[in-house]
Amino acid sequence: MTSPHPIVPEPVVIDTDPGVDDAIALLMALSSPLLDIVGLTTTAGNVPIHPATRNALAILESLGRTDIPVARGATRPIRGRYAYSRHVHTAEGLTHPLPPPNTRTSHADAVQYLAQTLQARPGEVTVIALGPLTNLARLQRKYPSALRLAKRLFVMGGAVGVPGNVTPHAEFNFYSDPTAARLVIESEVPLSLIDMAPCRQVFLTRDDVVAAHPSTAEGVMAERLLAGWFRLDRTRERFNMYDPLTLVAAVCPEAIKFRSVTMTVDDSVTTDDSTLWGRCLVLDETGGPTRVAEPGGVDVATSLRVIRELLGWS
Q1: Which one of 58, 234, 255, 279 is least enclosed by Cβ atoms within 10 Å?
Q2: 3-state secondary structure 12-46
Q3: φ and ψ at 3, to 5 degrees?
């Protein structure tokens, strides 16, 4: 029996710096019947912009999705230099080799593509940002009203009330471009922030990957990427699902309970102490434009179920 209310996929643009966890999130999005990926924008972050863009193109081409445009984005942060994360993701970004892509990037750069897409479809397109927020901050500077035209905005980044994973205060994406993070957060554009607190609770183990038994092309690629990631370091026992949890938040609202706050992010404008750059500061606990996970607000079992289902893992 067909449903009287067929699913209409939600158009999304994913801003990404692949990276293994970005790749897993992208594979989940490609598999989701709830999402229609209308474009990818790339940024440097986990790796420089060239391998990040190549990886995005290669993933799409390997899965026969060259219909999805890829717009190349930020090479440098608003201030300073990207930290990169070669020790986690390798210098090339992916732990399973993919054939070099033949497809090319969009003529528009990431900022132009985001502006054109959001302005053409006001209130329709969701933006999911998985890397440093450089592209979104530059969009906000050049087209101040564009980001407000997004239907929803999800951001993976920050460490709210918990230690960071780069410094005691900062998570990798916010540390990589703290000024971009501050500009986006202080823009008061409503967004859902998936920070380190919920992300640390959702992970896959080495044994989980061995027992994956994928039934889809997306799931096979995910299994190979994760198996390669564990092979790089025999002491690794779990893979935290940072970016994949952000995808879960977009497709399964009941998986994370949020509270609304007003916050900012430290950078070189707010403090001379560089050890604090990327630190999240909650200014008002009673409300604001930024939604963050409540303490203990992530449903781990539901999150892992959604991840497995989207990857076609038994």
Answers
A1: 234
A2: EEEEECCCHHHHHHHHHHHHCCCEEEEEEEECCCC
A3: -70, 140
Q: Nearest Cα to 141, choosing from 186, 83, 96?
A: 186
Q: Which two tokens stand for residue 119?
A: 């302005």
Number of H helices, E strands in the chain: 12, 11
What lies within 8 Å, CB to CB, of 29 at 6+ separation is: 12, 14, 35, 37, 128, 247
The answer to whether 10 and 35 are in contact (CB under 8 A) is yes
pLDDT tens profile 204-246? 999 999 999 999 999 999 999 999 999 999 999 999 999 999 9
Are 288 and 264 in contact by the 8 Å Cβ rule? The answer is no
pLDDT, tens only, 63-90:
999 999 999 999 999 988 888 777 777 7
Q: What is the DSSP letter of 282?
A: E
- Calculate the CA dihedral of residues 292, 256, 312, 41 and round it to 10 degrees: -20
Give the gyration radius of the chain's Cα atoms. 18
